[in-house]
Amino acid sequence: MIIDVIAFIIGIIVTLPMLATWGVYYIASGAGWNQWKAIHTAANWTTLLYILAVSTMLYMMFGIDYVEMIPVFLMTLFIVIVVIRWKRHTEVVFSKAFKIFWRVCFLLFACLYGLLAITGIIGHFL
Questions:
Q1: Rounded to whole angstroms, how far apart are CA atoms 8 and 42?
Q2: Distance in angstroms (rounded) separating the CA atoms of residues 29 and 26
Q3: How much is the average pLDDT of 74-82?
Q4: Do 15 and 28 touch, CB atoms closer than 8 A?
Q5: What keywords sit in the KW lines (predicted)?
Q6: How many Cβ atoms from other residues are within 10 Å of residue 41's Cβ?
Q7: pLDDT at 123
Q8: pLDDT of 79-120, one tens digit each?
């Protein structure tokens, strides 16, 4: 019984990001926003779900907990983005740096999510 509940929760965490991204995009585009604003809104609202899903999928596939490594990676990525912004513009506007950071995180973790999903499906059948 408890194992079924745990499996159900893990299944929700793993499948939720794709459905949530589509749902937020659909609601935002239905609210009259243009396509790009709806895409950016969907990316902003679901990035954290992709991070959690990738962490869960890595643990399920490889049995190693990457929870403590992901924040270190995210902080390093943010520092790299701030340094690049500082080198280009000499003045760092942290709101813009954070917006770039959050969009890069969405792209990175959405790609990792897709790759891990494909790897998991192929691994299940082999």
A1: 25
A2: 5
A3: 96
A4: no
A5: Membrane, Transmembrane, Transmembrane helix
A6: 17
A7: 87
A8: 999 999 999 988 889 999 999 999 999 999 999 999 999 998
| 33: CB partners within 8 A, 6+ apart | 41
Residues in contact with 96: Cβ distance below 8 Å, sequence separation at least 6, in sequence order: 85
Residue carrying the six token digits 């585009």: 29
Place of tokens 């499948």: 15
Query: In a 10 Å sphere around its CB, with 0-12 CB exposed, 13-18 middle and 19+ buried, how is residue 53 labelled?
Result: buried
Angle between helices 94-125 and 2-30 (to 10 degrees): 130
Contact present, 95 and 78 (Cβ < 8 Å): no
C-alpha 11/C-alpha 7 separation (Å) is: 6
Which DSSP category does 31 fall into? Answer: T
